[in-house]
Design goal:
Largest sheet: 4 strands, parallel
Oligomer: single chain
Structural class: alpha/beta
Strand order of the largest sheet: 1-2-5-8
Number of domains: 1
Shape: globular
Order of helices and strands: HEHEEEEHHEEEE
Low-confidence stretches: none
Length: 114
């Protein structure tokens, strides 16, 4: 288990060193727009808020995360929400993404109950 944790931490560190950070909503208006603009290795950093959308990684090896990723303050996790508005899967990985595509403790995905 420690080896997996070490590998994950190594990947996150190397991602920081060689990636572009796309801030949502400053650089792109939506999380999906940030994903669309990203290239492999980039970080889509989502500011606190409720984002009513469904996202698809589209085969990209990227990190989508809240400010928790950079500041390590757990309050950002509950303050950063993707609300799928009862419109199917909130987050989709269906284009051969690898385990290195990360939806890192960042966001709460919300599928409301009927």
């Amino acid at each position: 288990m420690k080896i997996i944790y070490f590998i994950l931490q190594f990947f996150l560190l190397s991602t920081y060193l060689f990636s572009t950070i796309i801030n949502i909503p400053a650089d792109q208006p939506t999380i999906q727009a940030g994903i669309n603009a990203a290239v492999n290795g980039d970080i889509v950093l989502v500011q606190p808020g409720i984002y009513v959308e469904n996202i698809n990684y589209n085969g990209k090896l990227i990190t989508v995360a809240s400010l928790f990723l950079t500041i390590q303050d757990t309050t950002y996790i509950s303050q950063t929400v993707i609300d799928g508005n009862q419109n199917g899967s909130v987050v989709t990985f269906n284009s051969d993404e690898e385990f290195t595509s990360i939806n890192s403790k960042p966001l709460i995905s919300k599928k409301q109950r009927r």
